[in-house]
Sequence to fold (1493 residues):
Amino acid sequence: MSDRPLTRNIDPVAGPTWIKTYEANDGYQAVRETIGQRSPADVLDMVRESNLRGRGGAGFPTGMKWSFVPMGKTDGHKYLVCNADEMEPGTFKDRIILEYDPHQLIEGMILSAYTIAADVGYIFIRDEYHVATRRLRQAIAEAEQKGYLGNDILGTGYDFHLYVHVSAGRYICGEETALLNSLEGKRATPRAKPPFPQVSGLFGRPTIVNNVETLCNITHIVGKGPDWFKSLGLGDDSGTKLFGASGKVKRPGCWELPMGTTIGEIIEDHAGGMREGLALKGFLPGGASTDFLLPEHLDLRMDYDTIMQAGSRMGTGTMIIMDDKTCPVAMVRNLEMFFARESCGFCTPCREGLPWIFRILDDIEEGRGMPEDMEVLDRQGRFIGAIGNTHCAHAPGAIEPLSSAIRYFREDFEQHIQGKRCPYAGG
Amino acid sequence: MSRKDPLIIQPLSSEEITAIENEVSHLPFRDAAAIDALKIVQAHRGWVSDESLAAIARLLDMSIEELDAIATFYNLIFRHPVGEKVILFCDSVSCWLMGGDNICDHIRQKLDIDYGGTTADGRYTLLPVTCLGDCDHAPAMMVGDELHHDLTPAAIDQILVKGNHNE
Amino acid sequence: MAKIIVDGTEIEADESRNLLEVLLACGEDLPYFCWHPKMGSVGACRQCAVVQHRNQEDERGRIVMSCMTPITEGAIFSVQNETASGFRASVVENLMVNHPHDCPVCEEGGECHLQDMTVMTGHRDRSYRHLKMTFENQYLGPFIGHEMNRCITCYRCVRYYQDYAGGSDLAAFASRDRVYFGRAEDGVLENEFAGNLVEVCPTGVFTDKTLSEHYTRKWDLASAPAICTGCSLGCNISVSERYGELRRIHNRYHGEINGYFLCDRGRFGGQFVNSENRIPRCGQRNSDQKFEPRSTDDAVNDISTLIKDAGRIIGIGSARASLESNYALRQLVGEQNYFSGLDDIEAETANLHLRALHSNLGIASMTEVEDCDAIIILGEDVTNHAPRLALSLRQSSHNAARSLAHDAGIPLWHDAAVRGLAQDKKSPVFILTPYADRLDDVSTAAIRLSPREIADTGFALANAIAAPDDTDSENLLVAQMKTVLMSARKPLIVSGSSLKNVEIVKASLNVAVALKKINPETRLVLAGDECNTLAVATLATQHMPSPGESADLMIVVENDLQRHCSPEAFSDLLANVSHLVTIDHSDSRTVSASHYVLPAATFAESEGTCINNEGRAQRSYGAFKSKDEIAPSWLWLMRLAAACDKPSCDAIDDLLHECADAIPGLAGIVAAAPDANYRGHGLKVNRMTHRYSGRTAMRADVNVHEPQQPGDEQSALTYSMEGINQSAPSSVKAYTWAPGWNSNQSISKFQDEIGGHLSSGDPGKLLFSVDTPLEPLLPASTSGKALDLVPAHHIFSSDEMSSRSSAIRDAAPAPFAILNAETASNLDVGQGDGLKCQSGNHHITFQVAIDHNVADDCAVCLFNGDSAPLFLTTADLMRDQDWTAPDTANLIGSDRMSR
Ligand SMILES: Cc1cc2nc3c(=O)[nH]c(=O)nc-3n(C[C@H](O)[C@H](O)[C@H](O)COP(=O)(O)O)c2cc1C
Ligand code: SF4
Ligand code: FES
Fold:
């Protein structure tokens, strides 16, 4: 189905799509038509025109990102890295592609690498994705055998070697510069930018890091053209997106839908609405590190800028739904426990500030909260919450659900403190 | 190299060394294979003892401190012995929303261990893990290499009684 | 230069600097932790935050870290606005969350950067009420204490230890709020510069154990600006005292020499001053060979009678005594009777060194060393012989990284980015030594050659450089080194006397001479033997009395002659002398052989001038007045002169002036520091801090009356709290302190630019600037020996005085001999066996360690107080059949010699 390019080969019942089926479905056609046929600059133009924005969470325009790489051949390597670390709580989209259509990613990576003249690629995958890792390795072997990977690809003289690197854990590895440090075999502390990876990335060489879903889109943009890709979106953004919903909805799941699909449609139509007896109280639109939105936001389109204007972020596009029987304080406590635990420990606000926030939330939830705690939460939120205050975006991400919860559910917090107990407990 | 005493260094198996050298072969520096090497040895031995760590450090031309600094950063490098199977229980938000805490309590009671603990029979170690990317089937956990989801206390009883999870 | 606006004021700023450096240099009190002037920025602590505005209209702006912000034309910043200062207060608040608040029992208290920054940001009230994180501490060796609970996770320690000093046994473990800085397990920190952790750590995690043993707060210390006597480099130190004891040695910033860092020999080696080996009073040896105390007057009387009655007097000076003491001796005994006390090789290398200093060969200061981009080390064990220089050479090896970063537009202060870009790329460093070198890890090539081979290679290299281009050398190594040196922007030749080989020094001069003709930027650095070798070599025309030379009286000043001549020569010397008078501060075999002994003051209790390896004269001052009977050697000699009615003086300044007038080349010494008449605003320079406390109580157990403070007629300093420390010229400034800056970080208030020169001038005066070119030197023909006995220096064993400090003794290796397997089998010894070095009736046995990383036919033996003279003669080497290894075999003392 051409309007669901990302999932057209995905059928969990039928199992993974191996190279024969993939090729039969026009797979690697974009590679055959591009490598050695089009100039890298032309491909870059296509990506730029397509208006593709990164699917890893920040929504940065992919074409622009690539354009900062010194083009053409350089002496020494250039690297393309696929971020398959998927660890943002509430996010379950990349795994589906990795497990069921690994060739789609490989094809996207070959095209992307060709564009920036990278000769080595890594897929950085989290350890827990054993099935995906196994299938990726098998798919790479298939692609190598067919001459899509390795030296002198399809006789064009272009070389590209692709390796899978299995991580050893830690959420922060998903942050692209921490990921590069980890790939270098080091502690995964993020790097200060600039210099950006495009200038000095893996092993000090020009490097591009993209999300799995982003790279898969390249296959289709190159295959069917930027205009077609743009036409897929319903609103400002182009293409389709893997959207998801988890929590107490009737049918939690992940669906490929046009960009700009409304939130209401996703929650009501695709996820089937709330379970019996529950009402929607709020939701995180794109993973743990996005601000809460409310039922009043259901009409919004899932577009990067639209969600941004509403005070949140589209993030990974996988929503976490909070029902009215769930205690917002307890939910935020769970989130902050996660963020505090996953701090890399490099910069002060995150390392010291998040555990403090967690302890206050724990006190409030357990009935030990003090009136002045709200002030400390506010102060700490301001201290940690802005990009630039910390060394990387982890800590500001951690503050998004907290500050929005305080904004929207302040009464809940105050009830806990005044009543010295969680009003939801036992409910 | 900082520590040289040959007595404390147990040799790595030739299989381990071959696997590590294979990783080294496509990296520009030997120590860039540090994480791969730790994982390879852990795959063979279940965990990374001080002795194994010293042996890897030597193989990769690193000091023990340089390697341990890396090993202790990552939650999936085990620097203490673990049970035959590690239970990685997802304690992230979607699983929590779906009652993950109760399921985990059930596991704790059943196995009589807390997070970080290993059962008396040495079969299981229980650890929390960040979102397993299976949120539409929450709660979820991994036992060894296997993912289990839509967990209920009854499902837990089944999974952990069988205790047979080879791939 | 660019114009920026800070809090509404326009500032001219250097674009190669980051904003933090610029603001600190402007005198702004901006707090920081993780940034360090020598280690650059990483942006970890977030303490240095300011607000940057996009333009005049942008009132809100955004928080940026000043240490990570480049200077760009027109940039607008707010430092003092509420957003910025509120953020900075929050940083300290959060840093203090897990901090134990144990200032009253913390050694850092009173000079703690964290305390200063807490006050500076205004954080006062604690709202954190939860549990604190706690850690276990480690044993890190005899020098450094460890209290991890005080850690604020600024990462300075590991960045210093690993990235700057090249150590590998200290790391950051774990993550989040559990990051732990330490070793994998308890054990002695291996790096020779570990002591700097004490000053690099902004809180009390790493503290000076030697200070802790008899702890005193910074404000209760009386300090003086001194020169380290540990080696020839003349690092500036601050010596501190309380209750008449040396309490600690800290770095004293010098923009051309040591900068911010010392070596562990210098930092911990001064404790010999407190040792029980000190000579407390005058003594005369009685007929039972025992020393009997004599009063000062009696001793001076007796000795002056000896002087008056003597036909021939010999005076032997010392390379570890001050220039003034040596000059006073020379005055007393007469020029023709004055000997430097150097052995032949020391004297010959010192003279070559002086020739180099008098020539147009550019002698590099350590700061200049750090700017060189290609380095050849010819037969010098820098780390163990002139330790601080090794730290500078390590920095030069990073110049390749810096130039890559420069080309890529990455600012040089952006430490992680510079390292990340360059990966393992290093500037060329060639190390030619007989045994493993501690700098091998940054070398392009580390070649193990015997001393003779090193000299030959050096001469060949010099010839190859001097030769026309087409005559390529057959020797590949020579060809490589030639290429590297010829293509460098600023090449550096490093050599010295550690191998006791004159030919090596000659060869290195020749290389420098040849290269200088091609590239005027060429630099040379030579490591000398002791802190004043160049001074005595300048004063003396003779060095050691020849065997059999007889005298009625021999006066030895601060010299254990056994270290400078063979055991036989030592016996010969004494046999022909009727009376031996020794002036020294510490016991030695020469002291034991003396008829009279006069107790000398150490560097910590007296003033004097040293001339370092660059030919820089520097004045050193004592922190305290020595006990009654003890006096500086020069003063003893002047008292003796007065008692003999010879010309004398009782002011060191007079002696100095006389010396400057009399000795060609030394005219500059008077300019090294202000004299005793110096006053600023009518005041002298105080040694005690303004907050010095308990002066009246200090002696309460002895007498409730406070005695009058001793006066100091000899220098610009006083033993008092009243004075002008802060505005004092750098050469007499006793300690650094500025309002709000109680820690050593206050130094930036006294620099012309961050990490630059001291604003009142770096202390000391370069002598000998004669720009005559040097002609190439001819190699001496050397007789081929089958086996070379190579003296191995060790940072903790080879220096006479520092090796007597208790902490240093704990860190010193047992005597060892390192050989490669082939040499060992030729000598029929194996690992752990005894190797006997026999010279005449004397022998020493070393424990053998086999190491492949040793040149063929070399037996590398530890040079320490006991074994020194043996190496100067041709000892015979053989297996020691009767020898058994000691139980507590610190077998591989050689561990520190190789990585
Ligand atoms: C704390 C943190 C965690 C992140 N984790 C992930 C992740 O697991 N997967 C991912 O693709 N991007 C993750 N990102 C975003 C990446 O840093 C990066 O922006 C992304 O990989 C770029 O790909 P894109 O341009 O294709 O979106 C994370 C960012 C932060 C700050
Ligand atoms: S915000 Fe700071 S401590 Fe937190 S993960 Fe990023 S760099 Fe590490
Ligand atoms: S000094 Fe700038 S962030 Fe630490």
